[in-house]
Amino acid sequence: MRIGIDASRANLGVKTGTEWYAFNLLKAWLPLTASRDQVVLYLKAEPLAEWGRLPKNVEFRVLRWWPKIMWTQLRLAWEMLFHPPEILFVPAHTVPMICPRKTITTLHDIGFEHAQELYSQQNLLGQGIGSRILNFLIRVLTLGKYSATEFDYHRFSARLALKKCSVILTVSEYSKQDIIKTYGLDPSRVEVIPNGVDTQIFKPEIRHESAKIEEILKKFGLQKPYLMTLGRIEKKKNSLGLLAAFRELRAKPENQKLKLLFVGPAGLGGEEVFQQIKNWNLADSVICPGWVKPTELPYLLAGAEVFALPSFFEGFGIPILEAMACGTPVVCSNSTALPEVAGSAAFLVNPYKSGEIAQAIQKILADPKLADAYRTAGWQRVKAFTWQRSAELFDRIIHFKV
Q1: DSSP code, position 4
Q2: Structure letter (DSSP) for residue 83
Q3: What are the angstrom distances between the C-alpha of 262 and each of 84, 161, 259, 275?
Q4: Do residue 284 and residue 346 come from a single domain?
Q5: Which of 110, 144, 348, 351: CA 20 to 30 A from 134?
Q6: Closest CA to 177 of 236, 109, 232
Q7: Helix/strand/coil (H, E, C) string of 211-239?
């Protein structure tokens, strides 16, 4: 069977959740195809070295496209028109305008359907004359239903994917039920393949590599004790709520040396967070290095006293599992998909109450036995989420369901 994969996101040098999902799932799945399928990985640029040695049945195909936008809808669509595979898999919900009848995509979550304020209303191309013309054309062509904003792009892409794809994958039971209810889909069209954790990289033994942890902390001007969060500094992640909780914690005499580490770039609402850091005189205790090297991330997680992810909306929440795998206690939201992923291995809180977030973190900081209990429970929880299991589920779906 000839299977085509949009591997453009998996081939990015700097990866966020969706990109890591694509890369890790493909790396685990491709060896399963060696004796059976021909696989084509479509890329925007030359393959990165991190792909390593792949089975001989796997072919990279670089599809050059000089504009920075519309690669999927136009360039990949052109490839599908003239050289279509039997099956196409798109690991994000942006599918080409032209695609095979047997197309699969992953719709990670549909937070954009429920919380418009958490998504950017800015034009995808900026504020120039070209972007205004594009916005006008999109308005006309869609009879005013969509614009060229990030928010509308999500909505349009999701609806196109639902129309074009024979099977919709998602990463949690929460997201599956949300997709079925919101779009009125036949439940048989939606399949859940949970994310995994690479326990060769994220592992509890790292906690005992004190010298290496200290070396990396020194690089970022960081000292223990510290709290950590991972992901964009944005409204959706409730970064401001976490900062408010940290401010409350710092007011306690026993927490005067406590610091907060935000790992990730600024997103929608990031500027407000940075302004509040200044307003609340927290510049010396809040560290925002942007993205860090994948090789450094496990050590930063392992060195943290608590990992916090009080997001307003998550379709899964891989970072809480990565923190658990490194032996770090987790505090996360009690809403959307996070309770499903965390089980009883995390301290769940109401993300809309910064005081509750602070209280949960304080309880773990003040009680070593409680912290150890969450470490043990977290490591046990992680064992249920492996990329190998995800790859096997994907393989069964692509061969027997599509």
Answers
A1: E
A2: S
A3: 43, 33, 10, 15
A4: yes
A5: 110
A6: 109
A7: HHHHHHHHHCCCCCCEEEEECCECCCCCH
Please, what is the Cα angle at 34 between 32 and 40, to 5 degrees?
Answer: 100
Paired strand residues for 62? 43
Mean pLDDT of 149-157: 79
**Closest by Cα among 234, 366, 258, 372 to 310:** 234
Nearest to 230 by CA among 294, 301, 134, 177: 301
**Which residue reads 């998550």 in tokens?**
314
Residue 286's CATH number? 3.40.50.2000
Q: Within this chain, do residues 183 and 265 fall inside the same structural domain, yes or no?
A: no
CA angle 308–312–317, rounded 5-degree value: 55
Residue 298 CA to residue 300 CA, distance in Å, equals 5
* Residue 173 half-sphere exposure toward CB, CA atoms < 13 A: 3
pLDDT tens-digit readout, 59-95: 999 999 987 778 998 899 999 999 999 999 999 888 9
Shared domain check, 375 and 356: yes
Backbone phi and psi for residue 88, each to the nearest 5 degrees, phi listed first: -120, 135
Domain that holds residue 228: 204-382
pLDDT in tens, 173-197: 999 999 999 999 999 999 999 999 9
Question: Structure tokens of 59?
Answer: 């072919």
- Is there a contact between 104 and 165 (Cβ–Cβ < 8 Å)? yes
DSSP assignment letter at 99:
-
pLDDT by residue (tens digit) across 23-38? 999 999 999 998 889 9
The answer to whether residues 121 and 136 belong to one domain is yes
What are the tokens at 46? 């030359």
Angstrom distance (rounded) from CA 171 to CA 197 = 13
| 159 shares a domain with 271 | no
Residues 357 and 332: their CA atoms lie apart, in Å, by 8
- Tell whether 180 and 209 lie within a shared domain: no
- Count of domains observed in the chain: 2
Spatial distance between the Cα atoms of 139 and 393, rounded to a whole number of angstroms: 40
Same domain (yes/no): 342, 267: yes
Please identify which residue in the block is written with the tokens 């591997």.
7
DSSP-based three-state secondary structure for 6: strand
Q: Do 179 and 228 lie in a common domain?
A: no
Q: How far is CA 243 from CA 92, 281, 285, 305, 318, in A?
A: 30, 12, 11, 16, 21
Burial 109-148 (b: 16+ CB within 10 A, else e): bbbbeeeeebbbeebbeeeeeeeeebbeebeeeeeeebbb
The torsion region of residue 290 among left (phi > 0), alpha (psi -120 to 50) and beta comes to left
